[in-house]
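Encode chain A's predicted structure.
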Amino acid sequence: MKEKIVLAYSGGLDTSIIIPWLLENYDCEVIAVAGDVGQGEELEPLHEKAKKTGASKLYIEDLKDEFVRDFIFPTLKAGAVYEGKYLLGTSFARPVIAKRLVEIAEKEGASAICHGATGKGNDQVRFELTVKALAPHLKIIAPWRIWDIKSREEEIEYAQKRGISVPVTKKRPYSMDRNLWHLSHEGADLEDPANEPKDDLLMICSPPEKAPDKAEYVEIGFEQGIPVSVNGKRMNGVDLICALNAVGAKHGVGTADLVENRLVGMKSRGVYETPGGTILYEAHRALESLTLDRATAHYKEMLSVRFAELVYDGCWYTPLREALSAFVDETQKTVTGTARLKLYKGTARSAGVKSPYSLYDMDIATFGAENVYNQKDAEGFINLFGLPLKVRAMKLRK
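Encoded structure for chain A:
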């Protein structure tokens, strides 16, 4: 009886030739799985393409709601940003896809999962750690680490010999990954960090120079750290992100150009477009500034760096990430209210925030009143707070 192999399938060149390659090198049946995480492509034609290249069947799975609920929003609540700029768009899309691969593999009685990630990138780790965490009995096949194909030209030649139709030329020279949250660009002229991104690189966001000359305000409502409304209109997570993507892109908000440290040891350069995500992070940060006490806010800020590393490294299904999320959820119980942002020429700036759980007390904070805060109390506080410095200075003078 032939073994069944479940393939993470996109319909692109890599996964199209992986199907015949698996059939030629394994006594197997290939079951293709396409995960819809909001990449904006019409996936239905993939049925015919997968069958033509040798797959026995294709699953097209709508993962958008799960992606937002179980991956995007928990990361947003954590305030996790990798290396100060990257909002983790590709990073947390991989575990939701891999989770569904595992579920289908178990349903189909498959013995292995296959992916098309290369041996130089982060995605191989993200796919495989998820599989190991959820189904350690499944084998993992990564063709790019074992086959003889070394270049895109060799891939095209391999496909043509087997009658697989592929575009001879590529309209855009970049390696791109798109989902509901972001669009990433890598490769080509971007591989030299000295090169400024070309004018026509951006596909979602307007260049700030071409954004409207008039600012626009947007108000986002949160309940326990989760965004639930835009300008007073309640929306589900998917629709909310789409709405913010549209308004943010119009004003050139959400582009990031960075040289990042990959998990596998090398540096890589990427340009990311994340308009809605950038707005949400700024709004969430503004609301937390009003509702979190100093100690919690500062500790959470340190934690967010580690959380981002875990997501980037593919460690979603780990005890540490789950424990950090439990801490984050506790901090978010009072992160309820609205944040108003001003969008203008590539920027999203706080323009007012309010919450029923606000810790800001105008009577205490004001410079005008003296009946709540006794300024004389500060002298004793400073004496005690500065006592270690005073003792040290006295000793040094001796």
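The chain has a mean pLDDT of 95.
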